[in-house]
Amino acid sequence: MTRDARFYFANLGADVARCAQALERHDEKRYQKLLATARRTLERLRESPSAFAEGELMLQGLELTRDAPASFRHELDCLIVPLALIPSTP
């Protein structure tokens, strides 16, 4: 089964949300591990240039908001949840 860009973008959003949660808990070790996972997920989007670019911006946003991870996570949820609810096309 082939996964589409929407699937990987939603997964990237979940990965980044977990990164933000680790920052909220001041767990740098977990954050670094989850960030590596997010970067691997981002690589799955390389063949979809617009999704890849948005994914890069998502990771940049995470880094820019390290001091306010809860706020970032809320905004991220507003972006990702609607995408996750759209059914995939066969």
Describe what this molecule looks like in 3D.
This protein is mainly alpha-helical. It has one domain. The chain is 77% helix and 0% strand. It has four helices and no strands. It has helices at residues 5-24, 28-43, 49-64, 69-85. Helix 1 runs parallel beside helix 3. It is globular and about 35 Å long. The model has no long low-confidence stretch (mean pLDDT 86).
Helix content: over 70%
Secondary structure class reads mainly alpha
* Mean pLDDT across every amino acid position: 86
Report the total helices.
4
* Weakly predicted, low-confidence segments: none
In total, the number of strands is 0
Helices and strands in order:
Blueprint: H1 5-24, H2 28-43, H3 49-64, H4 69-85
Properties at a glance:
4 helices, 77% helix, mainly alpha
